[in-house]
Design a protein that fits this description.
Blueprint (H helix, E strand, L loop, with lengths): L2 H28 L5 H22 L11 H22 L5 H8 L2 H12 L6 H18 L9 H27 L5 H22 L2 H5 L4 H28 L2 H5 L5 H12 L6 H17 L11
């Protein structure tokens, strides 16, 4: 493979996971002033506008076959509306850094779904990986939180774990449905779906009244979420996949929790909790075992 192309693709993938990792921090910061639905309306609105400009600039056709509309609606509801609402609600009560570690648990659910519905085989490494990842989640949600576990924190952790299951279902459907349109156009329509579904809640919750309370730093976070997270990150991820195999690109996802941790400490002044790092390490180790990046299976000559 052409080395410069591979290097450029690696930079695209690294930028994407960095944006996604920092997104938890930006969401947490804006939630100081806005409810989750009002925040998401602004995020989806900014993202949709930016993606539309990109599509027009690069002359991507916006017309799609009507038979794919149900597919787009399903993906938009799962991957954008439900996923982002669950995560934003969870971040009302839990640390952004803990959210970053827990989102890395998503591949475990993907493997479980594959075992149940695609008849994939269970191996010793996969079994140990699931055990390690579940152990890591237990460490983060109990002693790793740095707070006495109560109902409010428990709900937040439950919602974040639920979002990883939702993302696994979305990822399987995205691959299964395989809508034949450019990734920028697909992301645009999904973002518009999220905007459409959240806007009634924006009106109900008097979102316009919340807008006047926003300060410059909150608008900076919103622009980052709308442009870099909702638009550029997905675009760059697709560009990386044009050059590298999906299995190679997915390795960069292991760095996402570190981006969240660093940003949370710098921007939100969250405390560094060693036990959360230990729990997160167990999750990453477990995911690597499940995805067979490393193996515990014995080989025989």
């Amino acid at each position: 493979m052409n080395s410069p192309l591979r290097f450029r693709a690696s930079l695209y993938a690294l930028a994407s996971i960095t944006f996604w990792g920092v997104s938890f921090v930006s969401t947490k910061a804006v939630l100081e002033k806005m409810d989750p639905f009002s925040l998401l309306v602004l995020r989806f609105g900014i993202g949709s506008l930016f993606l539309l400009i990109l599509a027009l600039l690069f002359k991507y056709p916006l017309k799609i076959n009507i038979k794919y509309l149900p597919h787009l609606l399903i993906l938009g509801i799962l991957g954008v509306f439900i996923h982002q609402v669950i995560q934003a609600t969870a971040l009302l009560t839990i640390y952004a850094s803990d959210a970053g570690w827990l989102i890395a648990f998503s591949p475990i659910f993907t493997v479980i779904l594959s075992l149940l519905f695609l008849q994939e085989k269970m191996s010793f490494s996969k079994g140990m990986g699931m055990t390690a990842a579940v152990g890591g989640v237990f460490i983060i949600t109990t002693i790793g939180s740095g707070q006495p576990l109560n109902f409010t924190w428990g709900i937040g952790y439950f919602l974040m774990i639920l979002s990883t299951l939702n993302w696994a279902v979305y990822s399987v459907l995205l691959k299964k449905l395989a809508i034949p349109i450019p990734s920028v156009v697909l992301t645009f329509y999904m973002s518009v779906t999220g905007l459409t579904l959240t806007f009634p809640f924006f009106i109900r919750n008097r979102g316009f009244d919340q807008l006047i309370t926003l300060e410059a730093n909150h608008w900076a976070h919103l622009l980052f979420l709308g442009i870099f997270v909702s638009a550029i990150a997905y675009w760059y991820w697709a560009k990386a996949l044009e050059v590298m195999q999906a299995s190679q690109v997915s390795v960069f996802l292991y760095l996402e929790p570190l981006a969240t941790l660093i940003a949370a400490i710098i921007l939100l002044h969250e405390k560094f909790i060693a036990t959360s790092l230990v729990g997160g390490s167990f999750i990453i180790l477990g995911v690597m075992l499940v995805q067979e990046r490393i193996s515990l299976n014995k080989t025989h000559r």
